[in-house]
Design goal:
By secondary structure, the protein is of the alpha+beta class. The chain has 3 helices and 8 strands, in the order αβββαβββββα. A 5-stranded antiparallel beta sheet has the order 4-5-6-7-8.
Amino acid sequence: MNEASPSALDIGELAAEFPGWTIELVQDSPLWRASRDMAPPLAIAANSLAELRALLDEADRLDCRRTTNALAVLREYGVIAQPCGQAVVAEPPGGVRRTIVAGRGLYEWTSGVLIGLVGDVSEAAERVLRGLRES
């Protein structure tokens, strides 16, 4: 990305990197803004594209920590589910321990296989349970 001459391409790249966020370059200071309607609603502003990326990255880390705690719902199915930062270690009774990571609005196995959106915990939990049964 080119800080000297920001473009629609810069905005598009940042929006693709942080799904669910609306990225804008505005006329007044701070120039760069990002907002989202999903829970919890949030607006972020920065003076540079690099600053905005850093703030969005931090918001993503916080969201992921919150959403990994939500996967504790797996315990209702007898799974030992231990949140640890942006990850959850899940172990079914007598089964293989697997790790789920959250980032950029998605849950994935550490192998990189997509589980689902962090915004849909019940669907992600069902997919995790299926994955644990299959391993």
